[in-house]
UniProtKB/TrEMBL annotation:
Matching InterPro entries: Cys_Synth/Cystath_Beta-Synth, P-phosphate_BS, TrpB-like_PALP, TrpB-like_PALP_sf
Record-linked NCBIfam families: PRK10717.1 (NF007989)
Domain of life: Bacteria
Pfam families registered for this protein in UniProt: PALP
Keywords recorded for this protein, A-Z: Amino-acid biosynthesis, Pyridoxal phosphate, Transferase, Transit peptide
Pathway noted in the entry: Amino-acid biosynthesis
Protein name: Cysteine synthase A
Span of domain Tryptophan synthase beta chain-like PALP: 19-324
Species of the source: Roseicella aquatilis
GO BP of this protein: cysteine biosynthetic process from serine
Length: 351
């Protein structure tokens, strides 16, 4: 899909779900901007049809599979993926709209709200124990194995099967290069000085970085990383070395940089670490004072944008991603018992 500028000429009718994915607004974060003297802008990906930035990856991966003939619209097909939740939601909704089935493998430790949503929209949900990536039982490895087994049965069942492989499938980053990055450029009238966001697959950071650097090589690209992830170390030293831990879901890698991120390494200028208390401060502040309810990864992103603004100094425009909404984490980051058990701050209205 092509990016559209946020102007009054924007069409008011789009063609189905695919036409509704993308073209999200940039929201000026008033308090973060006032505190730093910079313009800090959040791309409102929580406004996507499936509620997260991963709708873009879901659409990009399935459309790419159709272009390659791996899936054929109107013919039986199965999309298999291992995910922390949001990519599974995006893939399932796009698959539904195009007539395919989806099998989604998720660690059972992910938020109850995401698991319930996946069931509600018709995903064949397979829950697994959390395992390290090297373990055959890891959710990514499990999803790959399911896809291979189904593909081996394809002649008998007549269904085409793809393993979405969001971490290594470069259609993920390509979608952001074609849509998210150009949208940011147009919405800031080319005035963006820096972009920062956290990485799960690295597709958003790599795709946006390519698009922005192609238009202005001086745009600063900074990876935001929660504690417990080794990607900060990877950017700074070339070695994935994790320290600490975090309650955030779907971002950070402790053992290896995923393929989408590796493909964009040359475009990344730096990395910043963000602790859970720093992220939660921004999540609760946005909700209480700006009416924006966002999830954990968005908190990491905004905290990193503030740190980057203070490094760069006043007068700069910094864009980040508001990845998904807070309702998806009601049982965790908006649950006072969950927060207290981990020694994390509880906002007054929850206490």
């Amino acid at each position: 899909m092509s990016a559209q500028p946020a102007t009054s000429t924007r069409p008011h009718v789009v063609d189905g779900l695919a036409g509704a994915i993308g073209d999200t607004p940039l929201i000026r974060l008033r308090r973060a901007s006032a505190a730093t003297g910079c313009e800090i802008l959040g791309k409102a990906e929580f406004m996507q049809p499936g509620g997260s930035v991963k709708d873009r990856a879901g659409l990009g991966i399935i459309v790419d599979a159709e272009r390659r003939g791996q899936l054929v619209p109107g013919q039986p097909g199965i999309v298999v993926e291992g995910t922390a939740g949001n990519t599974g939601i995006g893939l399932t909704l796009v698959a539904n709209a195009r007539g395919y089935r989806s099998i989604i493998v998720v660690p059972h430790t992910q938020s109850r709200e995401k698991l319930d949503f996946l069931r509600m929209i018709g995903a064949d949900l397979r829950l697994v124990d959390p395992k390290p990536l090297r373990d055959p039982g890891h959710y990514v490895n499990t999803s790959r194995r399911i896809a291979e087994e189904l593909a081996a049965q394809a002649e008998r069942t007549g269904e085409r099967v793809i393993w979405a492989n969001q971490f290594g499938n470069l259609a993920n980053a390509a979608m952001h290069e074609a849509t998210t990055g150009p949208e940011i450029w147009e919405q800031t009238a080319g005035g963006v000085d820096a972009f920062t966001c956290a990485c799960g697959t690295g597709g958003t950071l790599t795709g946006v970085a390519r698009a922005l650097k192609a238009r202005n090589p001086r745009v600063r690209i900074v990876l935001a990383d929660p504690m417990g992830s080794g990607l900060w170390s990877w950017v700074r030293t070339g070695e994935v070395k994790a320290e600490g831990n975090s309650i955030t879901e779907g971002i950070g890698q402790a053992s290896a940089a995923p393929g989408n991120l590796e493909s964009g390494r040359e475009f990344i200028d730096d990395a910043l670490q963000v602790t859970d208390p720093e992220a939660l401060e921004q999540i609760f502040d946005l909700q209480q004072h700006e009416g924006l309810s966002v999830g954990g990864s968005a908190g990491v992103n905004v905290a990193a944008a503030i740190k980057l603004a203070r490094e760069m100094g006043p007068g700069h425009t910094i864009v980040t991603i508001l990845c998904d909404g807070g309702a998806r984490y009601q049982s965790k980051i908006f649950n006072p018992d969950f927060l207290r058990e981990r020694g994390l701050p509880v906002p007054p209205w929850l206490a």
